[in-house]
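hey so i finaly got around to running the thing on Ger(X)C family spore germination protein from Desulfosporosinus nitroreducens. pasting the sequence first so u can double check i didnt mess up the copy paste, my clipboard has been acting weird all day
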Amino acid sequence: MQKGKRVIYLLLILGIPLLITGCWDRSELEGRAIVTLIALDKGENNEIKFSVQVERTSNSQESSTGGSSGVESSGVILSSTGETVMDAVRNLILKSGRKLYYPHNTAIILGNEIAKEGILPVLDLFNRDAEMRPLTWVLVTPGKAADIFEAQSTLESLPAKQLDMMLKDFGLSSKTVATTLLDTMKQLAYDSPGAVLSNIELDPNNPKKALLLNGAAVFQRDKLIGRLNPLETRGYLWSQGKVESGVITIPCPGEENKKVSMEIERANRKIESDISDGKLKFTITVNVVSRLAEQACLTDLGNPEKLMELKKSQGEVIEKEIRSIVDKAQEKYSTDILGFGTELSRKFPQEWQNIKENWAEEFPKAEVDIVVNSKISDIGLVKQPL
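ok and heres what it spat out for the 3d tokens, dont ask me to read them lol
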């Protein structure tokens, strides 16, 4: 009996290796080109120009398009063209000799010309491909997307890593947006009227061509129609309830030529819709709490009267920022990037069915009220100016 048990145990032990299949479908990285950034531009003859920044390995060679853009740590830059993105991707193998490996890619950068024509067709491959992470950043640039590869990283070893850190920390200023591939496809889904994506540029004031997140890019459906400056972008974020932090600069009470910096601690917003006598009305209510971070004046801001002036001024600045994006969306772009249609369809589903086909004409006519409830939590450790 004991002998029979030993035989069974022995057979089980010998059979275990047969159950361990290992990584049967693994991909050897030695034969792959690890992509860290992707750029899409309009090429010649209506083709798509596909450019990538590949992480430099010990045996990486200079690229056929000029190598590593003068900075060894920036990696190798490769590019190809094709009738479609997939065609261009495969054509790149003719130059690289390696298949591209996407899971480590940080961002997809879209050039101005390709963004004007429509971004849904060029993003389709990345949305379908299992290798591409849905949390990959998507950005637009005013020039050619491949020019962003010329940027020299400052605090990080690779521009891709620095760009990733910049976008993750966008909430510290709330003057740009950070949009992933998943965010982008959600904005463009269900025949939405438009989208707002990150805008990236080369800093014109930096001779080393540093990266600069500068406002946002506005899309009507999936076509680029304009851009927002940093304060208009924050107005957009206020309207969407996406302001995380940032600094509001306002005149010091009693000393208008000097400034006070208020640090945003928290904020939220609510959008309400109403239909009265056939007229559409929307109310954006923003609640914000800030703290006094800095004053360049000698006014005693601990004084209740001065503190009330400060709260009022802060509310006026926020209202102005929100109004700037509302006016631009209604008057210049005639595109509902604010989500009013979504709110209207929830509260008045039957009425929405009657006007949704003509929403592009009805949206600019809507009345928009802005209410800002401004609060100041504290004035810091210094109770009176020195």
